[in-house]
Structure of Hydrogenase maturation protein, carbamoyl dehydratase HypE:
Amino acid sequence: MERTITLDHGSGGRATHELISQVFAQAFHNDYLGQMNDSAVLPVPEGRLAMSTDSYVVDPVIFPGGNIGSLAVHGTINDLAMSGARPLYLTAGFVLEEGLPLDLLEEIVQAMAQAAQEARVAIVAGDTKVVPKGKADKIFINTAGVGVVPPGLELGGQYARPGDVVLINGTIGDHGMAILCTRQGLALEGKIQSDSAALHDLVGDLLQACPEVRVLRDPTRGGVATTLNEIARQSGVGIRLFEESLPIRDDVAGACELLGLDPLYVANEGKVLAVVPPAVSEKALEVMRRHPLGREARCIGQVTEEDPGRVALRTRIGGHRLLDMLRGEQLPRIC
């Protein structure tokens, strides 16, 4: 087999079958995928199905803290987890550019397989397409995921209530700034790492201890500010953030200042925003901090009756700044 992707790999013939068997099937092996039928027939536990899909076009495809393969697994798992679902199965679709080095593809696929294995999620079906050189940028990946929501669990952006508190499990803006600094070749003091991670275990611990949780959201594109605007509009409430409580790494804050960006609008890939009643906020924080992905969890804001549908930041000096929804694309191709 040639060591770069050719159009023959997308023909459906021998080269396609070699690519599937030698690269994808070996990495993703499980009993469902191993049947190699046109669809996977899967058992489903009791509960309601949750399903999500996302496409990943991140540039660069390798970045500090991960690559496009691990990101494609983490991102779709997290979308399922935000509805309280336990993720079960993923599909994976690949669009490969002619000339893509096979070593690079194998590195991405191995990272994807490792991320799925660590998350205890099976990749059960897939597809591969090859496009001529110049018609794509190395590799695009689509993942779709299926999970199960336990009976009786109801989460959603429409359930936030005045008095509720807003929690986050760690630092803000790491993923977007890791991507941008790598893309631009910025040599900053320290090394900013993507926070890309699967959040379903942390979420599961939180929901088991605090079933009163009202809203879970992962603040990806558009960042924390845009995600909270979505919640405020869905619930018809105001949300006030406290600047002194925002967990932002010094190197991320410095990079944002250098580039004229606001970290509240920078993407995250391993963070969850939780809106909870005040009576359980301390317990929720305690549970989150016991998990490796929640050690820096803290309360960053409160839901209010004032200014329904809007988000404001209370600054360190006591002023207030309106945080509108992001307009346009602040950081292109960060996921």
